[in-house]
UniProtKB/TrEMBL annotation:
Its EC number is 2.1.1.229. One of its GO terms (cellular component) is cytoplasm. Its cofactor is Fe(2+). PANTHER family: ALKYLATED DNA REPAIR PROTEIN ALKB HOMOLOG 8. This is tRNA (carboxymethyluridine(34)-5-O)-methyltransferase. It comes from Odocoileus virginianus. GO terms for biological process: tRNA methylation; tRNA wobble uridine modification.
Length: 664
């Protein structure tokens, strides 16, 4: 496998396979991560599959890498399925390339992982695109002089009373003042019909003109919010409401520097230093998709070597120090939007949010919409975190797969992160899922998987010896669609072929025994579910968005949801709002929304805030998944409507109803 000697001898079959996989890894890195590998030997290697996102820990990987020489640096980016290692010499990295390519290791969860190594020019965060600012974000240093800074600061009169036209308020964590339009923190929007008299302060006009001329900004703002933060103050992570303001949002830092945190919905956090007299410009993705916020604390963790220069604070623990905060006053200039937002981030765009579809579907179209908004979109968003919680295969399913004759062709319809795809190496297993991100995870694990709809699986009829459908059918929103999903499984089976189906049970206590789901009702921090059944749909919509919510904390919950279901024999009432389930409690309705609390940076790869105050982390966004939980006998009854099948077995397993059927 030595890159320099490849052509000098004939490759064996195993070597060819290895080479194919290695090239595949190279393509995936380039396509998905923009990482360019090189074909000549260097000191640095990208280790595909050996990443924190694949549950491979630093120590574990180091142990393997150090077999080949002295590791100078090992970069393990959060959530990524790869790492980057730099050896002290090229010889050592060549040795690693030659001996560790195709090496099987066992991850933290006991799953086997195969490493594929490729050379890269440099082992650098930057090279991996990890040191980049969020796309569309710029910090322009020294944008105004010290004199202008002084003048601007002196122009703010904080002693005016609240009757003043330019609304001023002391929020919990800072002082604010608005010009042009008032910003309402109760609905996070501006009253577009009620501009404040006086417009922006005169003193800003000439500065804005200068910025426009110099090309620092493209549009003239008509709204200004002045925030003043004393040490210990902050602003919660938020996205400025899309429908309220245009794309470009700029913020001038005065008086003192501060670190602002930007967060991508997938959990990546980028702390950015905003020096005093600098202008932060947020456009595009950084304005629409990433949240920004300032953690309330008295010290910021900054890079010692960089002083107060703008840019990302990396987690390079050898270069971190503390910076005492001073009083920072920011001038945030925005342009009020007069037409709805049509950005390309509909999931976080209030203009593009459909009316709450979270009610019991009355038509097939509504059912589809409900599944799209409360199943497909949610899995796409939570895929990485979801996957990190799905590792232990359930014993009865393993038993089913192990009992199949070797060489069987088995389809896992709704395979999730692929946890069953590698259970029995004697089978040909193929997985499919609606979620591209989950399918990507399967592929990273070297499983065969593709994206499709479980109602239209692109596999020839009668070609499978077996199928499994684990925790999938309960996500279909009408009885007809659930039967259609079962029908599709049967279509794939050859005569004599078997399908194993698991759905979530309404009965979480069976034969006087509580299911594992109920038993895990721990109230420890992190597992505690704070959403109760009286959450309103409006609230739900807010919560469905990752942290787009309030820039100030007060927000009332009005209870418009008094949906009560009578249990298994009662039909759902049309137009009923779907209740939000309280996790780890019994079900009170068959059709419901189950909250998913997205953990930022799941697993061990949390960004460490070495000096941050304890408990200052955001709770993270909450998503809701739609479920139809099955009553006893319901899955069997649905199966019985299918032709050409016989039910071999039906049973209850840990809170699920299960059927094994056979095509006759
Ligand atoms: O203080 C800042 O720079 C940002 C303020 C901000 O994000 C806001 O008011 O929406
Ligand atoms: Fe903001
Ligand atoms: Zn938008």
């Amino acid at each position: 496998m030595d890159s320099n000697h490849q052509s000098n001898y004939k490759l064996s079959k195993t070597e060819k396979k290895l080479l194919r996989k290695q090239i595949k890894a190279r393509h995936t890195l380039l396509r998905h991560e923009g990482i360019e590998t090189v074909s000549y030997a260097t000191q640095s290697l990208i280790v595909a599959n050996g990443g924190l996102g694949n549950q491979v820990s630093r120590n574990q990987l180091l142990l393997v890498l150090e077999e080949c020489g002295l590791v100078d640096a090992l970069l393990m980016p959060p959530n990524k399925p790869y790492s980057c290692v730099r050896y002290t010499t090229v010889e050592e990295s060549k040795k690693a390339y030659d001996t560790l390519n195709g090496r099987e290791i066992v991850d933290d969860l006991g799953q086997k992982i195969i490493l594929y190594l490729n050379f890269v020019e440099k082992a650098q965060w930057k090279e991996l695109g990890l040191q980049a600012l969020p796309p569309g974000l710029k910090v322009i240093e020294e944008i105004i002089s010290s004199e202008d800074e002084k003048m601007l600061l002196e122009s703010v009169n904080w002693t005016e009373d609240t009757d003043n036209q330019n609304f001023q308020k002391s929020l919990k964590h800072r002082r604010v003042k608005h010009f042009g339009y008032e910003f309402h923190y109760d609905n996070n929007n501006v009253d577009k019909d009620k501009p404040l008299p006086g417009g922006l302060p005169d003193i800003c006009e000439s500065i804005l003109e200068k910025w426009l001329k110099a090309g620092f900004i493209k549009h003239k703002p008509d709204q200004l919010t002045i925030n003043q933060y004393e040490p210990g103050h902050g602003i919660p992570a938020h996205i400025d409401t899309h429908s309220a303001f245009e794309d470009e949002i700029v913020s001038l830092s005065l008086g003192s520097e501060i670190v602002m945190d930007f967060k991508h919905p997938d959990g990546m956090t980028v702390p950015v230093m905003l020096p005093r007299r600098s202008l932060l410009v947020m456009t595009g993705e950084s304005r629409y998709l990433w949240t920004h916020g300032i953690t309330p604390r008295k010290f910021d963790t900054v890079q010692a070597s960089k002083g107060h220069k703008s840019g990302i604070i990396t987690s390079d623990v050898e270069d971190l120090t503390l910076n005492k905060r001073g009083i920072r006053t920011s001038f945030t200039f925005r342009k009020v939007r007069q037409t709805p937002c049509n950005c390309s981030y509909p999931l976080v765009c209030d203009s593009q949010m459909k009316e709450a579809p979270a009610s019991f579907p009355e038509s097939d179209k509504q059912a589809l919409q409900l599944e799209q908004d409360y199943v497909h979109r949610v899995y796409e968003e939570i895929a990485r975190h979801f996957s990190s919680t799905r590792h232990t295969p359930w014993p009865h399913i393993v038993e089913f797969l192990k009992a199949l004759p070797s060489g069987s062709l088995v389809a896992d319809i709704g395979c999730g992160n692929g946890k069953y795809l590698g259970i029995n190496k004697e089978l040909y297993m193929i997985g499919c899922d609606h979620s591209q991100n989950l399918v990507d995870i399967c592929r990273e694990r070297q499983y065969e998987a593709f994206v499709c709809d479980a109602l239209a699986v692109p596999i020839r009829s009668g070609s499978c010896d077996a199928c499994i459908s684990i925790a999938v059918i309960h996500h279909f929103a009408t009885a007809e669609r659930r039967v259609a999903a079962l029908q599709e499984l049967v279509r794939l089976l050859r005569p004599g072929g078997k399908a194993l189906i698991y759905v979530w049970a309404m009965e979480q206590e069976y034969n006087k025994k509580k299911s594992k789901y109920l038993r895990e009702n721990r109230t420890s921090q992190g597992l505690k579910e704070e959403i109760s059944n009286d959450t309103s749909v409006q609230e739900l919509l807010v919560k469905q968005l990752p942290n787009v919510g309030n820039q100030d904390s007060a927000h009332s919950v009005s209870s418009i949801n008094d949906f009560q279901d009578g249990g298994c024999n009662s039909r759902n009432v049309a137009n009923s709002k779907l209740p939000i389930h309280t996790n780890r409690t019994s079900f009170h309705s068959q059709d419901l929304l189950v909250p998913w609390h997205l953990k930022e940076n799941p697993g061990k790869d949390k960004r460490v805030e070495p000096f941050g105050p304890l408990g200052s982390r955001d709770p993270g966004p909450v998503f809701h998944r739609y479920y139809h939980v099955f009553c006893e006998g319901e899955l069997e009854a649905a199966c019985q409507t299918l032709s050409n099948i016989s039910i071999l077995q039906s049973y209850y397993d840990q809170g699920n109803w299960c059927v094994i059927l056979q095509k006759v």
